[in-house]
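Q: For a teaching session next week I want to show students how multiple molecules come together into a single three-dimensional assembly. I've collected the sequence lines for a complex. Could you give me the predicted structure tokens for the whole thing so I can convert them for display?
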Amino acid sequence: MQFRWRKYRRGRLSLLQATLVRAVLLIGAVTMAVPFGWMVCTALKDKRTMDSEPYRWLPKMPSADPTVSWSVDYLSASTPDFEDVVLRDFDETAAGDDRAARQGAGSLSMAVDFAADQTPDRTIDLSSAELPDTPVSMLAFWLRGDGSGHHLRVTVHGDGFVYRADDLPVGFEGWKEVHCYFRQEQFDPLGREVVPLRRDPPGDGGYVSLRSIRKVELTAVAEPLWSRAWQRWTYSFRKAWQSMPFGRFYLNSLFVSLAVTLGQVLTSALAGYAFARLRWPGRDKFFLMYLATMMIPAAVTIVPTFVLMKMLGWFDTYRALILPLLFSAYGTFMLRQFFLSLPADLEDAARIDGCGKLRVWLHVILPLSKPALATLATFTFLGCWGAFQWPLFATQSMHMKVLPIGLSAFQDKFSVQYNLMMAASLIVMLPTLAVFLFNQRFFTRGIQLSGMKE
Amino acid sequence: MTGPAMRTVSAKTARRLDTLTSVLFCLPNLIGVLVFVVLPVSASLVLGFCMWRANRLELATIDWVGLGNFSKLLGLSTKASIVAVVGGIAMAVALLVALVVLLRKWSGLSIPVRWAMVAALLAAGWGVRAYWSRDIHLEARDPQFWQALWNSIVLMTWGVGGRIVLCLGMAMLLNQRLREIVVHRTIYFLPTVSSAIALYILWQALYHPDIGVINRFLIASRDAFNGVVAAVGGPETWLTWQPPNWLGDAGTAKPAFILMGWWHEMGGLTMLLYLAALQGIPEQLYEAAEIDGANAWQRFRAITWPMVGPTTFFILIMGVIRGFQGGFQQAYIMTRGGPAGATTTVDYFIYNRAFFQDQDLGYASAAAWVLFALILVLTLINWRYGQRKVHY
Amino acid sequence: MRTFLAAVIVIAALGIYLLATQPGETAREDQTRIRFAFPGDVKAISLFSRLANRFMELNPDIHVKLEPNVGDFRQIIKRDLVADIAPDVFFSDDDYFTVFADDGHYLCLDELIAREGYDTAPFYAPAAESFRWKGKTYGLPFGWGCSLLLYNRQALRDAGIDYDPTKWTWEQFAETVRRCTGPATVKGQTVQRYGYMRDNSSHAMCSLWQGGGTILQKAIVCPQCGRRNDVPDVAEPDTATCGRCGRKMTGGEAEWRAACDSPGALAGIEYMLSLLPYTPRAVASGATEMPANQELFAIGRLAIIRGGPYSAQWAADVDVDWGIGYFPAGPGGRWTRFYCDGFVISAATKHPDVSWRLLKYLCGEDAQRLLAKEAYHVPVRRAVAQSPYFNRPDTPWDESIFAGAIEHVRFQRKIPEWDEASQIVDRNFGLLMLEPDSPKHISAAEYLSRCQREIERDVFDRE
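A: Of course. Below is the structure for the complete assembly, covering every listed component.
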């Protein structure tokens, strides 16, 4: 008896019954969906908190207003040795620890009405300034966004070159530090806006002499509403993706999970067959041993396994991630139970026809047990995709990490940025969700009852 | 081996060859399991008799302590008066007798034995009284382990019980012919394909006592209810209860975990197993029952429940094993085992002792083996008594 | 069969691709390769990879392999140390420093320091002290921090409070917390506001110190007259003088004992408990309490939150007018907990000199400037902490208050036994913080006497 996703009870329900069932299912479905809804809604927000009173589920839409009012303050450049060279502090007079006094007053403001076709740029002229002849790696300034989501283009004009930033979407409200890098940094810090600058003509990507910089141009670029909404809603996802080499983690996870799944199904099927149908000395004793090993929690075997990996010289390799998981007592147990339930006649017939054991296994047993194999594959894949403790122990290099480890890097010691955390979680969950949503049969085809009973 | 070929080799050689090829089938898995599973597990058994704080990977840093770990884990220090000791012995006898009764039928016992049993039960009552009146004072040498064990038992029992009830109910609902049923099945299955770590972090946010979605909902519904009461002329604020402080309160932390577990499992693999079992029940059985005039409950009792028996049995066995082994991730991510140890399961206890608290691998291994023994006994009992029921 | 073949092909392709794109040995022939490990949260990765890249630019003969470790850093580094695969230079915080130092896992730096005349004077004294054990130096400090308070100015105004949050006393603070608690109007909505947040076990220590108590007391036995002298945590036998005979106690035995059931400690704990009615209910424990309280603070429902220099970054995003204050001063003083991160060299390293160069760079002026700008720790070099790099004119908050907290910090030596002691304290603190009607709830006096008894019994094996 095989389970099918699109199969139902044959009997028809009366209208009353159907309504009742529908109501219960609907309530249940809402209960199931609300946490996921919260997850998605949080990931769509661009701020760290749930901070609104009363709680607002959906992120704000940017306003349709065709105006921007931004302020820029405290333009500085950073030398390779992390010294700051202040290029322009627009507000030399204000002092004290009052937030309003320290920022806001006297900053360079841009109020642009796109509809009125005003000049949408501000130029900070540095040619007259007495700048030291020092190399710099980046420009930094503070920017107060108005939440409108229009873009800001940063252009740095110098002697014989121009550096341009990808348009910086200013979706945020309030002051934020913006870093514009002349050089590519591998991992971008969170909590501030980071903009890579592109050189024109292309250069070697090295430091730039501060003296050769002539002016910095800030241009307001109008964006259509849908694009601004999109930019704002995908903010957390982009930020999360930037902060870790998730691409590599993805491939690692995929490779390890697939390899473990395939290997485990293969070895378990072979051994399950041997335990179910073949006769050899010590079979039942070994089977009992298999059963017993399932009952020991993994916590205490991690260290001995690690010692073993180290002795074999496999530490921090794919072998360490894959091999210890390839051989599963659980899989063998499950498949053995399933094979026992298969009718012996077919097998005998094949044997009489002159098939060897391998051919019986390959041509009779395996085709008959597709559902059980699929079930085992599903269990194994899901388990492996979410595994955390062993991959953490078995690897050391950044390029060997798997997805759940990347996810846990967002759990800061001191604070959790829920929007980034949830966005990263969704990134991790997406492939399994997608496979599941588009091909549910793959996941559930094989849920099989008879494999489970003695 | 075809017929003619068999004639060329002697029967003995053929048998040997047969055994050899059979073993070959098992060999890849067997070697793997021996090296990567049995070897570490055996190492942990040896470690259970040692103290190893692991300063270096050298055998010299491992101290043999014999049964020390086990006596520290399970040991009870007792203070008892003579009366209490008698009561305690009586209690033990009563327990033994109860076991005998369990194993053999009451009616099969002779009259003197029955009298002896009544006497033993009375003695047991005396023992219980002695315990409650503090004549016997029991104190565990490692109370944390006992607490963890208790937590594990509570979480496992409610988890498995709830899972069986909920998943069977869900499967019966989802087995109906309704147009939107596939959508429902998909929604209910979502948590199973989601990353567990992400879900725990999510639930931790949902359970926030002040601004979590759950308590916001509870407060809003309370206020709405109060509003209605006030509108029809009732008191201004009729309901004054505060929503629970889910993870922050020793009393509600375990229920919070259990609820989350149910949510997680309601439409998951267990439900699918039940769905498969339900789909395997021949429709004629129900038709026949309907003709006989059986109502829904009778149909459930007489057909559905026995027919899904093997599935229930499998879920029970695996649930007990997994339930006792689980609980580390939830506790680590959501509560760190707190408040006041209310969510420390044996699994978390083992991890904690192995890697965080004492960092004594020996002690942690001993705890794991105690857990193993417990699981083994429970599984055997399940096997013995469950299977009898299953084979209808 | 088709599925199987497809899977094999996909796995093979993936495997080949992954192995081919593995960053191989990136160190050149003429380079010395050393490994550098640190906690792999997103902020630290950004900070330390920038530092390491700059270091390699300055030192072309060295290649630094970065190893960010996610998960529990201590556990991972212990695995590496035990298995003899430790990185050459790695991060260490003062929580477990002495544990590994005592086991001989760290390279002693005294020789290198003496050889080069490396000057540790520019460091804040408790920071340098954090990486010394039994009179020897095993590491250099990087950034320090301590617990502080962030307060919502509007909430204090609403309550009519005009105490100076950098100077307040126990009574004033308690009054502030009490008056801030209650219904408040935030953005037109009436909400329940709380005055302060619940302390966790390690912060309850601050109240305990403020009351005049301590958990562990160090004593040195005078080798001349045999008197047991109670000394501060940092005192060593060859520097301390005997209280009776007045001579240097060089060669004297240092010993520790539990001292938590003093009246001062009781006063501190009771003061902390007296604030509980004005705090939001506990949110689980340990790792999870801060984010939840930060959310409350961000929506204006929490008037005062505990924080540290690291708080400035998240609080910058918050739509609340906040200021920075110190803990209140109790009868025992205005104490707060000092913590310090730093770097150490593995005792097993094959390149001690190259590692030492990296260590010096990481704790040098340049690196301190970057740390100062990233601002989640206070730089350990006094000059940088007082410079505009840390006390930035462009940020809306005043960093000098963070650095000024050095006046009130208490350096606590976390001896190897501290691990076990703090777990006892934690466990009993959980019971103390249970609802009073819970059967397992214990009183403050009971809490302290249990800690005292169990630490003496289980940690020091004394009855």
